[in-house]
Amino acid sequence: MSNKQADNNNNNSGSNADNIEFPTSKKNLILNNNTSDKSIHNINNNLTFISEFIRRKSGIAGVIILLILVSMTIYAFFGIPFASFKEWNNPNYWIDNPRLASPIWSDFFGYLGRDTPEHLILSSSVENNDANRGANKVTISTTNENGINVVTHSYHINYNSDIPPNDFMITYSLHKEKIPPAIEIELIRPNNNKFDIYFDSITPSISGSNQSITLGRIFSTDSLIHQKLLDYLKFYNYKQETSKPEVMLFSNHENRSIMKGNYTFNVKFYLFNNEDEILNSKLILGGEKFGLMGTDELRRDLTVGLVWGAPVALFIGLSVSTISIVIGMIYGIIAGYKGKRTDESLMRINDIFYSLPTLPLLIIMSLFLGRSIFLIVLFLIFFGWMGTAKISRSLALQIKNFQYVEAAKLIGQSDIKIIFKHIIPQLLPLTFASIAISVPGAILAEASLSFIGLGDPSIPTWGQILHEAHTAAAASRGLWWWLIPPGMLIALTGLAFVLIGNTIDSLLNPKMKRM
Amino acid sequence: MTSGFLFFLFKRIINMFIVLFSILVLTISLLGPTMDNVIKDSVKYNVIDGLSNQKVEFKDITERQRYIDKQILLQIKNLGLEEPWYSPNRFFNTLFKVMVLDLGKSNFFVSDSGSSSVKDIIIEKIPKTLLLFTTSTIVIALMGVYLGVFLASRADSKLDRINSIFAIFSNSIPVWWFGMIMIFIFAFSLNIFPARSTPSTPPNDPFYFFDLLYHMTLPLITMVILGFGSVAFIVRHIVSGILEEDFIKAKFAMGIPKKKILYSHALKNAAPPIITMIGLSLAGSFGGAFTVEVVFDWPGMGKLYFDAIGLMDVPIIIGLTYVSTLIFLVTVFFIDIIYGYFDPRVKLNE
Question: Cα–Cα–Cα angle for A475, A477, A482, nearest 5°?
Fold first, then answer.
C-alpha cells in the first residue's frame, strides 16, 4: 500500500515512482528496475559523481548558500562573544542599545528608513565599541592636581547628522574606597566653546553587585545637567530649552540648526584614594539606527541573534534528518528483509505513525515534557522516520532477491551481517539525498514550534525572533528589519538543502532528469 | 465493491480508531496531573467564593479554615478526584468525557454567546477554521490542477522551469512568516486589508458574514500563493506521465483537439493519484493553517490554541487536540478511501 506519497512531493524516490513515472523508453525501463545497481555505479565513481554535481547549477547554488551558513556559524563561535548567546534573554546585557533601531543602511530604502541619527556607543575599554570607527576615538589621561588623581576619559566625536541625537548617556564602573570620587563632565564644541555640564560626587550605586565596584549612569535628562545648562542659555540667539540638552548642546548659536564638527566629551573622575580605579566608562549617543540588522524591542542586537540562529538551525536540521532517516532506513530494511509477519506488523505501526497529526501532538509534547532544544530534536525525530522506512522497505524487498544476497544467505552469513554489508551500502547514496531533502522540514517544524511560543526560550533561533516580532505586532507596525531577515534565512537554509538533495537525487535517479 | 476493498476499508477504520485512541491516551497521560490541579483549584475557589456569599459566621480563623477544608474534601470526593488520574476508573471516565467534549469550563475564554463551557467555545471556532481551510484548499486545487495540466502540455518550457523553482521556493518558506510579510505589505504599507482578521462587527450582525469574508481575503491569498505551486508541480508530473501513454498519442493522431485531450482524457486518467497527493499534502498543511490563523488573528481553532497555550488553559488545549486530531484523521481516512477505491491493486488485495 503505497498510499502516502504526499510526503515525497519532491523527492520522487521509490514508492511513488509507480504512480508518477511512466517509463518512456526501453532504456528507462531497465533503469527503473535497477535503481540500486545505478547506485553501486555511483558509489564506485565518486570522482565522476562530484564532477557531475558541479555541472548542476542548482546544486552549486545550494552549496554556496550552505557555505554562507557555515561561515555564519564559524563567525558566531569565533567572531562574537559567547556571552551574547548566553545572555540573549538578559535585558541588562543589551541595555546600552537603542530600542527598535533600524539597520544603519536603512536610509537607502527611501521611506522605509527613518531619517534619524545612528546610535553610537563609545567605550573606554577596547572591545565592543564604535570608538575606532571614523573620526570617533577615546583617549584616557591621568593627571595629578593638588594630590588628587584626576582620570580623564575624552570622547572625540565627529557629529555630521542634521538631527540631534535622541539623548545621551554616560555610564561608568569604578572601584572605590571610603571617600567617594567626584565626576565632572565638560563638553568642548566644534567652535571651542567649553560647556561644563555636570559635576557631582558619586553616590553608592544601587545596581552594583559587588560593594567595592560602583556602577553608574548619567542620563541627559539629569536635573544637574539641566541646571548647569541654564548658565549657557545666553550664548544662543534664540530660545533653547535646557530640558532638552541633547538639542541644545548640538545646536548652532545663530539659528536652529545642528552645529557639525568635532565634539569632545571630557569625563573627569576625581579620585581621593590611591586605590581607586576607573574600570570602564561609556558615552552613548542615542539614535534609531544600529548595527547591520537593527535591534528589537528588548534592545537586542538582531545581527547577533541572526548569526547565532545559523548554528542552531543547522544543528536541528542535520541532527533531526540524519537520525530519523537512519532509524527509518534500518526499520524499513528489517521489515523488507524479514518479510512476512514482521513486515506486516512493522508496516502497520508505520501506518499508525503516519496518520498522527504532527502539530497538535508536538504542542502537547513540548508543553508538558519540556522545551529544551534537544527535546525538540527528539520530538521531530519521532515524527520524521516513517517516509524513509517505507522507501527503504520497498528497496530492501528488491535487493534481497538479488543473487549475491541469496548467495550470502546460502553460505550462512547472519542476517545482521547481510543487512549491514550488502543492503545498507546499496541504500547509502539515496540516503544522503533524503537526508538533505528532509532538512528543511525539520528546520521549518522547529521554527513553527518556536513561532507559536513553544520553542526553546533560552537560545536565539530564527523562529524565536519571529515569535517575538509577532507578539510585538512588528508587521502592522512596519518593523521590517525585525521580520524579513529571519524568515529569509529560514527559507534560504531550506532551499539550500532541497537543491543539494534534489541534485544528488537526480544524479542517482536518472528518471528525474531535472528539477 | 470487492472483498479486497472491504478488507481495505476495514483495515483503515481500525487504524483510524487505534490512532485516535492512542493520541487520547497520550494526551490524557501527559495532561492528567495538570488537569487534576486545575480542577482542584477551581473547587477551592468555588468553596471560598460560596462562603462569602452565604454569610456564615465563625468564631475565629481556624474554624473557618477547618470548615473550608472540609467542604473542599467533600467536593473533591463528590467529583471522584480522591483517586489519582491514572486509576482505571477515572482514566476511562476522562477518556469518555474528552470524546464527548465534556471538559467543563474554561478559565480564560468565553464564546461569542457568552458561554464559558469548553464545548461551546471550541464548537464555535470549528466552522471558521473549516471555512478558511476549505476555501483555500479549493482555490489551491483548482489553480494547481489547471496550471499543472497546462505545464504538462509544455513540459520543459521556460514557464515549466519557473514553476519548478517556484514550487521548491514555496515549500521552504514558512507560511506564517509569509503571512507577516503580507500584513506588512498590504496592511501597513498599502493599507488595503486589515492587519487583524477578527471582524469588528458583532457576530449577530447581518453583515457579519461579509465582514468575515473581507477579513479572510489576506490569509486566503497568503495560503494560496504558497500552496498552488507545489500542487501544480505534482499535477504536471502525473499528467506528463500520462501524456506519454499510447492511447493518448492515438487520440492526438485521431485529431482530437489538444485542449480536449488534456483536460478531459488525460486529466480523467490522472485523477486518482492527483486526488490522493493533493489531499495528503493538504492534510499535511493543516498544521500550517493553524499558524496562519495565529498570524492573522483569524478567530478559529489555531488562534484559540495559541491563546490557550499562552494562558495554559488545559481543558481548552485537550479539547482542541482531540477535535483537530479528529478532523485530521477523518480527512486522511477519506483520502485513503478514495485512493483505495481507484487503485486496482487494493481491490485485488495486493
Answer: 55
Contacts of B189 in chain A (CB under 8 A): 478
> Nearest-CA neighbor of B51 among B75, B68, B38?
B68
- Nearest beta carbon to residue A491 from set B167, B172, B279: B172
The pLDDT of residue B17 is above 50? yes
- Starting at the earlier edge strand, list the strands of the sheet with A168-175: A120-123, A277-285, A168-175, A213-219
**A-contacting residues in B 64-93 (Cβ below 8 Å):** none
What angle, 0 to 180 degrees and rounded to 10, lies between the N-to-C axes of helices B158-172 and B118-153? 160
Closest listed residue to residue A100, CA positions, set A450, A486, A468: A468
CA distance A88 to A76: 13
Q: Which of B339, B261, B320 is nearest to B118 (CA)?
A: B320
> Helix axis angle, A480-508 relative to A302-338, nearest 10°?
30
Q: Are A250 and A172 in contact (CB under 8 A)?
A: no
Model ipTM? 0.81
- Taking only the tens place, the pLDDT of each residue in A380-434 is 999 888 888 888 888 888 888 888 888 888 888 888 888 888 888 888 877 888 8
Query: Rounded CA gap, A361 and A380, in Å?
Result: 11
Nearest to A475 among B184, B279, B320 (CB): B184
Residue B287 with chain A: CB contacts under 8 Å = 357-360, 448
Chain A residues touching residue B288 (CB < 8 angstroms): 448
pTM listed for this prediction: 0.81
Q: Is B297 helix (H, G, I), strand (E, B) or coil?
A: coil
Task: Report d(CA B162, CA B168) in Å as an integer.
Answer: 10
Helix axes A462-471, A302-338, angle to 10 degrees: 120
Q: How is residue A423 annotated by DSSP?
A: I
DSSP B113-125: TS--BHHHHHHHH
